[in-house]
Amino acid sequence: MHALDIVTYTAFVCALISLPFFIVNFLRFRSKVIADRSLRSPWLKAQFPIKSVGSFAGSIALAMIAAECSKQVAHADVLHELAALPDQCSVSIDGHSVDDPQRVVAVLRSLRWAWAHHSHPTTPVWVRVSAPSHDILLNLSRDSSDPHEYWVFLPRYAVTSRNEIGRIFTNSFDAY
Questions:
Q1: Is residue 17 in some structural domain?
Q2: In which domain, by residue range, is 153 found?
Q3: 108 shares its domain with 164
Q4: One digit per residue, pLDDT tens: the chain, 176 residues?
Q5: Is residue 175 part of a domain?
Q6: Which of 5, 75, 127, 139 is 20 to 30 A distant from 149 in Cα terms?
Q7: Which residue, of 80, 113, 142, is where some domain finishes?
């Protein structure tokens, strides 16, 4: 997962570096096309900046693919870790211990993908599930339009700390 973080951010930096070259080369191409008043196709008037466009678009595409892979892997990892939890685990929400940890773990196991609906995450609720062999920290951020929908983030990795790994629909965290 850390490798996917590195790939994502490196590709994003490469896109930022290639952006000025893309802009300059594309503007040069456009000026040559406009200056040539013949009826030839624009592709015959000047050479299209394939390398600049390819490096910029390729870097953006690689960053997006690596980020999406990170989200998918984190989603599967969290569900796997939650499924492997022993019955004797402790759960804390915003630093306060929970009396019935199995109920919270059951809610967390309902993590799934959901369609976006023009809303955004708001108030974070920090949930830590601890067991002798596991320690999972999740950021559950309440949805801006549905108070029973929570966006789940995994702060363990850079990409998944800013990109949701799924959503949970519950009223169990209304008090927090």
A1: yes
A2: 88-169
A3: yes
A4: 789 989 999 999 999 999 999 999 999 988 888 887 776 776 677 788 899 999 999 999 999 999 999 999 999 999 999 998 888 889 999 888 888 888 999 999 999 998 878 888 988 999 999 988 888 999 999 988 888 899 999 999 999 999 999 999 998 877 77
A5: no
A6: 5
A7: 80
Q: How many residues does the chain have?
A: 176
Taking the C-alpha atoms of residue 50 and residue 33, their distance in angstroms, rounded to an integer, is 15
Distance CA 11, CA 16 (A): 9
String of DSSP letters for 79-144: HHHHHT--SS-EEEETTEE-S-HHHHHHHHTT-B-----S--EEEEEEEEEE-SS-EEEEEEEEES
Which letter does DSSP use for residue 46 in this model? S
Distances (CA, A) of 102 to 14, 88, 108: 45, 9, 10
The last residue of one of the domains, among 80, 100, 134, is 80
> Phi/psi class of residue 166: alpha, beta or left (left: φ > 0; alpha: ψ in -120 to 50)?
left
Contact 137, 127 (CB under 8 A): yes
- 59 and 93 assigned to the same domain: no
Cβ atoms < 10 Å from Cβ of 15:
20
Q: Which residues pair with 121 in a beta bridge?
A: 143
176 inside domain: no
**Model-level pTM?**
0.81
